[in-house]
Amino acid sequence: MTELPPSAPGMRIGLFGGSFNPPHDGHRLVSRESLKRLGLDAVWWLVTPGNPLKDTSDLAPLADRVIAARALVDHPKVKVTGFEAANGFTYTYQTLDFLTRTLPDRRFVWIMGADSLASFDRWERWDDIFEMMPIAVYVRPGSTSRAPLSKAAQRFANARLDEADARLLPISPAPAWVFLHGLMSGLSSTALRQGNGSAPLT
Q: What are residue 70's phi and psi, to 5 degrees?
């Protein structure tokens, strides 16, 4: 649970972080689409100890969330790890800094939903994250119009790749990012915890 998935030099690896409280089909959808659209060799689900920007009072134990995520994953290229807690990482920039220093010959891409980009300037050292590795932003219901107008998107507007060039993202020097449109899921972990997460894939 606390170890990194196996990898090899030159691999293109998408990093998909979140609480996964609980994991759901929307997470699988983003993973599958990112693997295909970005030409990735793997996607790692980074199950976080907790989001500093969110209420964690109803957060399930890390081990339970990792087990649930592994039970849901149905793709051989998607791996789940809870290694951040073992290293005492609280913020995303700490995780990305560690990975780029520890595995400098891998080509990492940070994957996040458009809802996260909309509020990305609230993240700790968010501008440094843009400078650390390429970023793929996947469309989310209700965030299609807000995300491209966010402070982060405006700050790094010149680093945005055309969506048609998405497969170039893993080999693009940071800062570089792409906004991916495509299949969307109306599911959210919050709604599922509240018993209102039955929206289908759209």
A: -65, -35
